[in-house]
Amino acid sequence: MGGPTAMLRPEEEKMFEGQPRGFPFGDFDLEDVMLPEGEDMGIPSDTDEDNQEEEISSESGFGNVLVVDNLPQVGPEKYEKLTAILTKILSGSGRIREGGLFHPVDEASKMSKGYAFVEYENVEQARAAQAALNGYQLDKAHKFAACLYDEFERLAKVPDAYEEPGERVFTPGENLLDWLTDKRGRDQFVLRYGDESEVCWNDAAKQQEESVYKRSFWTEAFVEWSPRGSMLATVHRQGVALWGGKSFERLQRVGHPNVQSLLFSPCEKYMLTFSEFPAGPQGRPHFLAIVWEIRTGKRLRTFDGPHEEYAVGAMARPDRGMRWPAFRWSGGGDAPVLLAHMKANAISVYQAPEMTMLDKRSIKMENVQDWEWSPAAPDATLAAYQAEQGNLPARVVIMKLPSREELRQKNLFSVAGITMTWHPQGDYLAVQVDKWTKTKKSTTTNFELFSLREKDCPIDMLELANKSEKIQQFAWEPRGSRFALLHGDGSRPTVSIYNMKDNKSSARGVTLLHTMTNKQCTSLHCLNRLHMPTLQGGHNGVVEFWDCEEMTLLSAGEHFMAQEVAWDPTGRYVATIVNAAAAMENGFQIWSFSGQPLYKTAHDRFFQLNWRPRPPSLLSEEKQKEIVKSLRKYSKRYEEEDEALLAQADTEFLAEREKQLSEWRNWLAAKKAAVEEREAFAREQLGNRVSAHEEFVIQQVEVSVVLDVKEEPAQKL
Questions:
Q1: DSSP secondary structure string for all residues of 563-619
Q2: Alpha helices, H only, 134-184
Q3: Where is composition skewed (Acidic residues) in this entry (predicted)?
């Protein structure tokens, strides 16, 4: 290409018509603008790690081919049957191309060679199949070893001679509980809005949130805290990443393409990731669930295949898929960590970390429809519901694992449906029983209330005055023995508050404490102890805060179009939320436990506000009760500390404002000095001519000149 004065041919000028002047830039040299090899302009990348594994290359054209080894070696009489079985298994995680399964046979012995090549429709399906099939147990003697074809190239580079690795220096990680050391005892929450994800302190004293960490495009779907708040999970197309510490460094990442849901174990040692695939030509949706050990990132077990085996009872969707979560972790504490799922007439339970089936057999339960783990129990305890079958009545059973001891069971008749709700501390189990009337045209409702901490686990029954009233919501008090019911038809239901103990004698027995009728209420949200806000319906977003000890209305406020309510883990503050499902007013508002509005923040396309959970207290129940009784003695000291912190915050604010004002004054003085210096230089160089422009008058004049006039006769139409 020529220099800057190079002329273009007429056809080239037409080609580049409309481009900037000088295009195609004859003096342009590509080498002048190319970056040096390895240069990243100082922008760090999440994927730039020294120890990162080499990415699998698909340049060979076989990126969608999977090699499956450790297959049975069979003769001609069993070859076709084995190939049909392999086709069924291998197509469970992806669609195989026509003629895409190659199961070679040894020409001399006529025996299959014990491996197969599988060609899927795309690379993503091949990787998903590799994740699902590697380690698949076909029978006692054959366990699949699945590997991508392109990965052989990487394995071929491994030297034959052993090379001793160099010494690696241990670098301690950040404290995952650093946020608990905040001197002011503040809580954190994570926000997700637009393309941003942000972790903030809830600074109620300053009536604003304080940003801790903010990042764009941190997740592609949602974020979720671990049960004890140690880690934050972000979801991506490739899998899940876990972050923690003061600077939110990446702790772990696991590969699960197109992951859709995740579930932590309460002890934060294990995590289950889940994805499902749409129905194929046979109309059978498939799923993939993987259990991981969080510390090492090791895959412990894989569940995959069609939904039919797992979509049973309450877990079945109308489209023949299974509801989430069909897999559930047992409660925390010192009990063994168990994972369970339901199938036809049984519940299968697996124990971590081996993830083998408990006692090598499922728990047989005829016509089981639903089950729930106790959220907090010294031993793993589950409650299960078995529907009526023939002359056998329906049954609710509470069982302790791993001993399989039945703690209590209750037979029920004419059952239309059951809903089980555990107390957050595992003290009680509420079973809402909807029963058919004699005509089978309507139902009545009553509650069976199990007291797990009492001897022999006694059962109390609660019936409303109007048995046919619809139960809209049941809510336990997180710490205590009270519960609330939202019941009634129409837009103005009734709120009733009960206690599992008699207020005067503290003896067991369900007692009605208070009833609020004709409330335009849509949901109840109970706090740890005395206060219970009710979020009213409609677009008004009216929030009422009630003291359940004195049964008095503390305050009422309004958050227009509010859809969600979320208490912080300490019960001191509550957030009302308007998410992106609403076309306007997106954002959140923070309130005190007594209903005082503190601050409100608006964000366009607001998706999530999740409070950061706190780990269980290290204090015993007796010590906690002692602190509650002596709260006034402690509160004085902490009030003084709060005042000192606020005074310090005011001092810091004033110092920062004074610093900014000083910087502004220095900047202004520097600008004035520069102007004076320029004027002095102009006077020195030009003398009296500096002000010569003041002697002239500038006028703007427009002159019109007629260059030519031409007359032509108009053509007749």
A1: -EEEE-TTSSEEEEEE-TTSSS--EEEEEETTS-EEEEEE-TTEEEEEEPP-PPPSS
A2: 151-156
A3: 28-57
